[in-house]
Design a protein that fits this description.
By secondary structure, this protein is an all-alpha fold. It has a domain of 36 residues. Helix content is 42%, strand content 0%.
Length: 59
């Protein structure tokens, strides 16, 4: 016995719209969390320490 599960156009449209809303919510939350927390935030990155990376011996 074959079962046929076909979603109506209305169900597909609502599902698509909910997916867009969910995607926009996640994207918006990500962008919001990347914003500076205080008003005097500078867009420039300041290095607080000097980091030196040296390659180790291969053998």
């Amino acid at each position: 016995m074959k079962a046929k599960f076909a979603a109506t156009l209305q169900v597909r449209a609502v599902s698509f719209l909910l997916a867009v809303v969910a995607s926009a919510t996640v994207l918006g939350a990500t962008v919001l969390s990347m914003q500076p927390r205080y008003a005097g935030a500078s867009p420039q990155v300041m290095a607080l320490e000097r980091v030196v990376v040296k390659a180790g011996a291969v053998n």
